[in-house]
Design brief:
Shape: globular
Helix content: 25-40%
CATH superfamily of the largest domain: Aldolase class I
Structural class: alpha/beta
Strand content: 15-25%
Distance between the termini: 60 Å
Strand order of the largest sheet: 4-3-5-6-7-8
Number of strands: 18
Bound molecules: cobalamin, iron/sulfur cluster
Number of helices: 17
Largest sheet: 6 strands, mixed
CATH topology of the largest domain: TIM Barrel
């Protein structure tokens, strides 16, 4: 047995025994566009890594995006690691680098496995799109990956285990984990933690926490392919333990809680906050919530427990649009909650959709004005991507108005986001609305002065100035495009 830095033990049995390489190498491909280096840890991959380690395998992760590795440098790293199995994962809009990585790296590895949202949604089509992949892991990967490694180690005879899809073999669904505490914590020891950063970070050293999975709401644009509708959660003790581990073992100061719906169970959030306050952690954090999931008392307690920013899916300033998207929330409630957030001493982020079917371009821009009115500190304006499988996609196909174009947005990971053209809009309308929304919200001298002063006080000025410059550059480039 070998004991690794985190105190866990694993044996050198299974794949790769007798070789010098690792059993499983998980790779996040490079993103070599300038100014793109503000990345959070690839938490899905790290859950998978932890599950494979717990099953006794030697696992490594190369985060080429965070490290800023070139393609040749990544290739060299993979050759040096000599993995038995290479794992890649990706979301639909950013599959191009995953496909490039598969083509480049497949010659150096005996087997390649693809997981994540895109593989889970498209299955056979994903196998066709990535011919280098030997297998797909469908859904939440912890259970299937451990079984897949055992299956491969025993020679890959018979049908693949549940959750694993190969060409020409029968496929069985794997159940999603019900008890999240039974999963090992993400394998933070495998990634370069000091390289991560986040726009809203208020202290140095960023990590990601997922304290719950799934969301029972049914917003028509939301892709719940992987985590599904059943809400499952980590216990408060486990969450507090992960925070303390991040802080005390890795020296990290800030966590982004990327749960779909962190505050769904009020009693759990109260217990987490009380636990954090009791433990005396200095770690600060941001979470995502619905406006019907918070109240003044909860927000105050969250603030005391280190929360600095809460992001809400505001979507629109028009009730008719919220109803159309089946958001089941009201604009009146949103206005009230943004006031409560401010009073609790927290920063607010509004996620807003531009180009909601049924809105005119002027109505979309009015949503931006409304965000100014309710005093949102930051707004992320997104256009609506109709992901196959979502109700809005099905509706657009059924009713014959599915038309898409590509829109450039400084908040998007892909250079040009595939976007729905709402009925009655032109492509030019969409681009104009995205540009005006950002410019009219962010390029206000009084707003910029207020935010700069606050960012300076919180130590976040360099990160935010960099992002501000990116938005300004994107906007200026559009003047000549
Ligand atoms: C956190 C998050 C982010 C974060 C961090 C992502 C990260 N690198 O960790 C940020 C904000 C950066 C982000 C960005 C984007 N995101 Co996002 N994001 C999420 C969110 C809210 C949670 C994801 C998560 O951490 N889940 C928890 C972990 C445990 O699950 P997981 O990541 O899916 O991983 C599990 C499985 O997928 C699988 N798995 C994953 N990878 C692999 C690899 C292998 C080899 C194996 C075996 C298994 C495996 O096992 C994991 C453990 O169970 C989801 C919504 C959701 N609930 O899924 C949206 C979501 C995944 N994002 C989405 C989108 C569209 C994006 C962007 C493209 C948006 C944009 N246009 O910029 C970018 C792309 C960024 C990029 N370069 O990859 C969509 C994807 C839709 C689709 N069909 O692809 C989702 C579903 C949101 C939605 N409801 O529409 N995102
Ligand atoms: S948009 Fe948010 S509230 Fe709506 S279904 Fe998706 S995760 Fe749940």
């Amino acid at each position: 047995m070998v004991t690794v830095a985190n105190g866990s033990s694993y044996g050198l049995r299974g794949l790769g025994a007798g070789r010098r390489g690792v059993d499983l190498l998980l790779v996040r491909p490079p993103d070599l566009r300038p100014g793109r280096r503000l990345v959070v840890p690839p938490v899905g991959l790290l859950y998978v890594a932890a599950a494979a380690e717990r099953a006794g395998h030697r696992v490594a992760v190369v985060d080429a995006e965070a490290e800023g590795l070139s393609w040749p440098a990544l290739e060299a790293r993979v050759k040096a690691a000599r993995p038995e199995v290479l794992g890649l994962g990706g979301m639909t809009p950013v599959m191009e680098p995953v496909r490039t990585a598969a083509r480049l790296l497949r010659p150096h590895v005996p087997r390649l496995v693809l997981g994540g949202v895109h593989a889970t949604r498209f299955r056979e089509r994903a196998l066709d799109e990535v011919p280098e992949a030997d297998a797909l892991v469908i859904g939440e990967g912890e259970g299937p990956v451990a079984e897949l490694m055992a299956y491969l180690a025993s020679g890959g005879r018979g049908d693949p285990p549940p959750g694993v899809m190969t060409r020409g073999a029968p496929f069985r669904e794997a159940a999603s984990p019900r008890d999240l505490d039974a999963l090992p914590a993400p394998a933070l020891h495998l990634v370069p933690n000091p390289l991560y950063g986040y726009l809203f970070q208020t202290r140095p050293g960023v990590t990601t926490l997922i304290t719950s999975r799934g969301c029972p709401f049914r917003c028509t644009f939301c892709d719940k392919t992987v985590s599904g509708s059943r809400y499952r959660w980590h216990s408060p003790e486990r969450v507090v333990g992960e925070v303390l581990e991040a802080e005390r073992r890795y020296g990290l100061g800030y966590a982004v809680l990327f749960d779909d719906n962190f505050t769904l169970r009020r009693d759990r959030v109260l217990a987490i906050c009380e636990g954090l306050a009791r433990a005396g952690t200095r770690l600060e954090w941001k979470c995502e919530a619905r406006v019907d999931g918070v109240d003044p008392e909860l927000l105050r307690l969250m603030r005391r427990a280190g929360c600095r920013t809460v992001a809400f899916g505001v979507e629109s300033g028009h009730q008719k649009s919220l109803d159309r998207l089946r958001k089941t929330q009201t604009v009146a409630r949103t206005r009230e909650v943004f006031r409560q957030v401010r009073e609790a001493g927290l920063e607010s982020v509004a996620y807003v959709l531009l180009g909601i079917p049924g809105e005119t371009p002027e109505e979309s821009l009015a949503s931006m004005d409304w965000c100014r009115e309710i005093g949102a500190d930051f707004v992320q304006f997104s256009t609506l991507s109709p992901f196959p499988g979502t109700p809005i996609y099905e509706e657009a196909v059924r009713e014959g108005w599915l038309r898409t174009t590509r829109v450039r947005n400084p908040a998007d990971a892909e250079e040009w986001r595939e976007t729905l053209i709402p009925p009655g809009w032109t492509e030019a309308d969409l681009r104009r609305v995205v540009r005006s929304a950002y410019a009219r919200f962010y390029f206000r001298p009084s707003y910029l002065a207020r935010q700069a002063a606050r960012a300076a006080r919180g130590g976040a000025l360099p990160v935010r100035a960099r992002l501000g410059l990116r938005v300004a550059r994107w906007w200026a480039a559009g003047l000549t495009a």
